[in-house]
């Protein structure tokens, strides 16, 4: 396939996917590590689980438990952060943003809160405010590579690819071979329609230590966009429970269907094999 063969609908699809990776990149900040260690109350072991590893029913259960705790004390920072992240993963973007808006008022100078607020704003498509929040969370004398990568992902959405990639390179200088940064770099090229370069970076990301299912899902997307659907589906199913694997494949099919029918892509893939 030609390097820049994305049509208009595929570019829109890439924009959707890139919006998702903005959320993923900020989710790696220290705030997420802290809130993932909540072990008391009704949340129990569920609070220790990485959010991206939860099934839809588990997300619903966690949201219900956390929602009750949040209602009792909206200023409980760890609970509010975790609750907002789970709401976002469940597709309740507006509700997640509402939780983070309130928390940002209560913790207006807290670096973790500002970073998570930027994540929520970006997921809601409010990119300029998201950029401001992420930049305010950054400390120039002690820069955080996660925030540099998140800022880059937002700049990519604003059409500032060169500035975004400069930030990714700075972040990689601080954290070499970090999968989330490499994946964001790949997504930058995907937005531009350069599928081969996007695949190169995303393959590096997927092979790097610490790569999670979200990174592999982005690799599956860029491979699927090139018509190699059977390869993409294998990647989408890796290291997941059957329910999660089916959800990933369903997501991949729905994304690809925006540009071309899944049946046509699969048929072309079979002919090549």
Automatic annotation (TrEMBL):
<dbReference type="InterPro" id="IPR011990">
    <property type="entry name" value="TPR-like_helical_dom_sf"/>
</dbReference>
<keyword id="KW-0378">Hydrolase</keyword>
<dbReference type="GO" id="GO:0006508">
    <property type="term" value="P:proteolysis"/>
</dbReference>
<dbReference type="InterPro" id="IPR019734">
    <property type="entry name" value="TPR_rpt"/>
</dbReference>
<dbReference type="InterPro" id="IPR014596">
    <property type="entry name" value="UCP035836"/>
</dbReference>
<dbReference type="Pfam" id="PF13181">
    <property type="entry name" value="TPR_8"/>
</dbReference>
<keyword id="KW-0645">Protease</keyword>
<protein>
    <submittedName>
        <fullName>Beta-barrel assembly-enhancing protease</fullName>
        <ecNumber>3.4.-.-</ecNumber>
    </submittedName>
</protein>
<dbReference type="GO" id="GO:0008233">
    <property type="term" value="F:peptidase activity"/>
</dbReference>
């Amino acid at each position: 396939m030609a390097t820049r063969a994305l049509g208009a609908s595929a570019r829109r699809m890439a924009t959707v996917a890139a919006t998702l990776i903005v959320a993923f990149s900020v989710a790696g900040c220290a705030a997420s590590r802290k809130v993932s260690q909540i072990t008391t109350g009704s949340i129990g072991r569920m609070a220790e689980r990485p959010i991206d590893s939860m099934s839809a029913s588990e997300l619903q259960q966690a949201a219900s438990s956390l929602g009750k705790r949040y209602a009792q004390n909206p200023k409980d920072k760890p609970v509010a952060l975790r609750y907002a992240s789970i709401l976002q993963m469940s597709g309740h973007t507006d509700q997640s943003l509402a939780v983070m808006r309130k928390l940002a008022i209560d913790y207006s100078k807290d670096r973790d809160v500002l970073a998570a607020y930027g994540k929520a704003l970006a997921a809601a498509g409010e990119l300029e405010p998201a950029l401001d929040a992420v930049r305010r969370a950054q400390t120039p004398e002690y820069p955080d590579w996660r925030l540099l990568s998140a800022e880059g992902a937002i700049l990519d959405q604003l059409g500032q690819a060169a500035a975004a990639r400069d930030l990714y390179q700075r972040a990689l200088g601080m954290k070499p071979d970090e999968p989330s940064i490499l994946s964001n770099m790949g997504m930058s090229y995907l937005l531009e329609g350069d599928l081969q370069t996007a695949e190169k970076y995303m393959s590096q990301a997927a092979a790097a230590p610490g790569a999670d299912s979200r990174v592999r899902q982005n690799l599956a997307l860029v491979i699927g966009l090139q018509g190699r659907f059977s390869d993409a589906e294998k990647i989408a199913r890796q290291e997941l429970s059957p329910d999660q694997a089916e959800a990933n494949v369903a997501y991949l099919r729905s994304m690809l269907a925006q540009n071309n029918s899944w049946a046509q892509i699969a048929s072309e893939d079979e002919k090549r094999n």
